[in-house]
Automatic annotation (TrEMBL):
Keywords: Flavoprotein, FMN, Monooxygenase, Oxidoreductase
Organism: Malassezia brasiliensis
Protein name: Nitronate monooxygenase
Domain of life where this protein originates: Eukaryota
Alphabetical list of PANTHER family matching this protein: 2-NITROPROPANE DIOXYGENASE, 2-NITROPROPANE DIOXYGENASE FAMILY, PUTATIVE (AFU_ORTHOLOGUE AFUA_2G09850)-RELATED
Record carries keyword Flavoprotein: yes
GO molecular function list: nitronate monooxygenase activity
EC supergroup of this enzyme: oxidoreductase
Amino acid sequence: MAQAAGGRLAGAVSHAGGLGFIGAGYYSRETLTTEINAARAVVGERDGRLPIGIGFLAWRLDELPRSDAEALVHTALDARPTALWFSYGAPGSIERWCAYAKQAAQAPQPSLFVTASTLEAFQQLQQHDCIDAIVVQGLEAGGHGLGSGQPRDELLLDVVRTTDAAHRPKLLSAGGIADGRDIAAQLTLGADAVVLGTRFLLTPEAAYADAQKQLLLKAQGHDTVRSMAFDDARGTTQWPAGIDGRGLRSATVDEYDAAAQHLSWAEQQAQQGRVPGIEARQERYRAALARGETERMITWAGTGVGAMHDIVPAATLVQRLAHEARQALADAHARLDAPIS
């Protein structure tokens, strides 16, 4: 949730009992410091640490001069957050950054989260002792992810059935989770916790524009699409091979699809930033943004968006989700013991 989840949202979620994350993927040290201070103003500190998480893109850290990347991570560590989350990098990059953070952190050390989109990726990551939690992200997730990854429930069950719960990192499920019933379902499938992204875009604390929030309120799950179009328009095609994004279909997507219609998904990946007509598409995208038009706006969204119908404060949402999940689990327990006839 880069550029949507800042300190205000992270602090509000944590203050209500969740664990809110600052999406720092594109941040400078100065911006990260500002957002950390915003979170601290909302949630304060507990037991000598700031009870939020901070997320980084491993590939972005790798792009920076090493000293700048390390300084950015140290800015996060100096805040004593509860967790750091590293996602999306070249082979071995995530593990290297986790090891660096573990070595550089002073007590109390943050928990280290990473993302896996396939069983194979999970199995590789769990071999590293520095990793405390692995988020298994299904294809249903909004924003960036592995285009050839697995559906959420299939991936979660593959992990649960092939790994020993006593000897693996904490297991979190993500992708298309919209309400407390979804949370309850993931817990019964074996997840230790869940991650929600799109649902928290519909809060006053989220940094999305009001126009984007209105688009989300009107959307159905079938209005989302996985595509390279979003990064094509923004000029952010440096993501690792295989990574695309899920967002609301728009004129931006339609134009890209028309230009890339004769290319397979693999060919689109190979031609990132070079699909014919990219300069003209980017110019139309920038011009539309400058005019405040919504038909070309990039709005990340997961497949659960159709079950999201209101904008409520983050604290209210955390409480609602917890209540719905408890109620769903209680209802399931009651049905389990009830006679069929």
